[in-house]
Design brief:
single chain, 225 residues, mainly alpha, two-stranded antiparallel ribbon, 2 strands, elongated, transmembrane, DUF4386 family protein, transmembrane helix
């Protein structure tokens, strides 16, 4: 009887509160990065001097980028884990490989944001572009390693997680395709033909796909994730 009462207290409409929390959480990280990539004052392919000059000219936008990055670091790993919970039963191996790539990749994002923090702090402190550039060029080599982890982890890992969604059919086909396509679009817009609007679309597709997973979780007959 106590167990029944606890379930009633911690549920809404017969469904566990954690299911609603997860459904709400899922799109936040990708959506934050989508806006971050759109607001970023520089391009990923810019050299250090160009980055420094652009950050100095747009410290307000850079502040927004840092806040969004903070949100992304807090939410991306839990979101990926939540998606893995709904795919691992029918696609265990692919889900495992995807998570082995995504978790370290997303965690490495926090290390990469340190460079943006440095540029923002330098600009706010009144340093010129030359001084900020010298700081960027002398960052610890672990930052370059973190970059490799992030790029491989989030691009390949997201594709694999999207394929797992396709195979398990826990969401509509279009949602799985949105997740699969999101990071190749991002990579194209970040590295090959730099374009912040296309980058927004890429990460936005992942946010939409993850939101669809959240909706699917809420349709499950069980009361919890």
């Amino acid at each position: 009887m106590t167990t029944t009462a606890a379930r009633t207290t911690n549920s809404v409409g017969g469904r566990g509160l954690s299911s609603y929390a997860v459904a709400l959480l899922l799109p936040i990280g990708p959506a934050a990065v989508a806006v971050l990539r759109y607001a970023l004052p520089y391009y990923t392919v810019d050299d250090s001097t160009a980055m420094a000059n652009k950050v100095i000219a747009a410290t307000g936008r850079m502040s927004l980028v840092l806040w969004l990055g903070f949100i992304a670091v807090l939410t991306l790993v839990p979101a990926a884990y939540a998606v893995s919970r709904v795919t691992r039963q029918r696609a265990p191996r692919m889900t495992l490989v995807a998570m082995l790539l995504l978790v370290p990749g997303y965690l490495a994002l926090g290390w990469l944001i340190a460079e943006d923090q440095l540029m923002f702090a330098g600009a706010k402190a009144g340093l010129d572009a030359g001084a900020i550039t010298r700081l960027i060029d002398h960052l610890h080599p672990s930052g370059a390693v973190a970059g490799v982890f992030f790029v491989l982890g989030h691009v390949v890992g997201t594709i694999l997680l999207g394929i797992a969604l396709w195979r398990t059919r826990v969401v509509a086909r279009w949602a799985a395709v949105a997740v699969i396509a999101s990071q190749p679009i991002h990579f194209f817009a970040a590295v090959i033909v730099p374009n912040h609007t296309i980058d927004l679309i890429g990460w936005g597709l992942q946010a939409v796909g993850f939101a669809a997973v959240g909706w699917a979780i809420l349709q499950r007959p069980d009361t919890d994730v």
